[in-house]
Amino acid sequence: MNMAVRSLRRRKTRTILTVSGIVIGVAMILVLLSISAGASTQTNGLLRNALGAQITVVNGTIPTFPGGGGSGVTFTGGFPSGGNGGGGFATFFGTGSTLNESVVSTIDGISGVYATSPQLSTSGYVNGDAVLLYGIDPSTFASVTNGLDITSGTMFTSSSTNGMVLSNTLASNLGVSVGSSVTVGANSTGGSSYTVTGIYMAATTFGPETRSAYITLSDAQAISGETSGVTEIYVKANSPSIVSSVASLIDSEITGVRAETAATVGVATSLSGTLGTLFIVIGIVALIAGAFGVINTMMMSISERTREVGTLRAIGAQKREIMKIFMNEAFVIGVMGAVAGVVIGIVVSVALPSLTGSSVAGAAGRFAGAGPLSSLSTSITASNVLLSLGLGIIVGTIAGVYPAWRASRMDPVEALRHV
Amino acid sequence: MSEVVVRTTEVAKTYTRGKESIQALRGLDLEIKRGETVAIVGRSGSGKTTLLNLIAGLDKPTGGKIKVDETNLRDLSDSELTNFRLKNIGFIFQFYNLNPTLSAVENVEVPMSLARIPKSERHARAIELLTAVGLQARTSHMPDEMSGGEQQRVAVARALANSPPILLGDEPTGDLDSKSTKALMDLLRSLRKDGGMTMVFVTHDPLVVSRCDRAIALRDGKLVQELSRSEIEKARIGTMENEVLEGVY
Questions:
Q1: What is the pLDDT of residues B59-72, one digit of tens each?
Q2: CB-CB: which of A3, A312, A318 is closest to B79?
Q3: A414 CB within 8 Å of a chain B CB
Q4: How many residue pairs bridge chain A and chain B with CB atoms within 8 Å of each other?
Q5: Nearest to A3 among B101, B115, B158 (CB)
Q6: Same-domain pairing of A230 and A362
Q7: Which domain holds residue A63?
Q8: How many other C-beta atoms lie within 10 A of the C-beta of residue B196?
Q9: Could you count the other beta carbons within 10 Å of the beta carbon of residue A57?
Q10: pLDDT greater than 70 at residue B36
Q11: Which of A261, A292, A312 finishes a domain?
Q12: Which residues contact A91 (CB under 8 A, 6 or more apart)?
């Protein structure tokens, strides 16, 4: 091994050139892996923040609806507008289809769960008009689901009593605005007084969602009579990639519930997965190119050292010992290239976000919604460093196999004649 | 002194290069006794180096037999031949062929390392050998820090590392001036006296021939003349018209 190092030191320029092939490959792999890891952290954050709940946990007895939402949203039947048609809702969200609130803390205890938010969907009347009433926990609602697109006023807080947020359609139908007082109850007559704290833009322009209102979970439970009852528990997983496994954990660990996953999660996860695979392939191609550089320079080095090989064979070195000498050199080249490549890879990965941040942001700014992805974010992980290091060493060593084999097969008589 | 160490019987070697085949040796019979110093002379292409390589076990004959002690080299596999060289043959070359990245003492250690001799033991032996060749003060010098004569003495120390019974040299003084050549030949003679080692040199150098016990001349792959020590000396004084000295000059 000592001999290998000395022999490489003697031909410094050549060694540097040989090693640089591996350096570039390894650095490239590490940078690409770091970008990929950074992008996946970024997408995870993005998905967690922007795409709403990933899992909706409902009572297991509720039949699955096409569309899989599991909440009242899937109800597309006629909406009772009169004072006597509310029975349908009451039946639909009856006792049999609620979950006990205590399930929330059980779900919180499941590994991989990032946050939960309970909701009770029920029916009620606002100023005598039948509406969909959602009881929510305002402290977790916005962070677990998309939240509401509040266009005026604010969301009520969990401490405030009798606060309410209405959809824009409902508000204009009722002729109320932020600060207005409304009467909310289980029947078309009677109820308690609520204050409108905010108005939100409904996600759709038709259907029941346009006629819905949000109040606190406890208020909704009181109105519906579902003490401690919830109809949906929204769940976020730590990362999009584990959503389905978290969902099956919930299914298997809690009886009487069904965990449904949102379709968007799978798409986003597979997208970031594809990106990662693509990057690794590019990196490996770069490393293989480096390996050919190693083969090329080692072949040249061996042809220059023909007489050295001939001498060693003449004084009694076996073929395998010649092989070992050159394999050792290849291994040293691999180690040097891998270490230098990892160092450069780390430096580039650290510098990249600030380098791209300013130069890319301008161009990316033109694309609506490109904001969070406009600068590259990188993440250097120990496993990626070890992977690049290992790949560099392995590829460098493997690249030495053929030249070393050629050296060991030299005819000593011919080799000694070589000048 | 009369025991035969190397015996070649009808030995032939034909090389094929492309379509051409070259008969380097055409049936050569030779006996070399233990402790003898033999010079092989002849013009370029006469088969001198081929003969030396066959005795060394670097190459295999295409006809005939080569026996070193009781071993027929034709019967050995490549790996066995390598092992034979390691234990029985010391090699010195015209251009010394030292490893430029290793110091004098490390170069001498190479054959012992190949023979799996423990590190401490081989270092002590290498120092001992360098002392024997008069280089005790230059053991840690690199080859490019030494003169040609010094480098060749390192090569001699390396050749003797595993105490081989046979020392072979292909033009060992070819790159040395006459002073270094004399010094080297004196050194080799003194080493021979100590161990009864057999030495065979391919050479053009009359200084080398004059210090050998016997000279054999090759022409076109055949042994054409043999001179004993007394004949060599007579030839030096005489008209120098015989085959040996034709090969020499």
A1: 989 999 999 988 89
A2: A318
A3: no
A4: 62
A5: B101
A6: no
A7: 52-261
A8: 12
A9: 27
A10: yes
A11: A261
A12: none
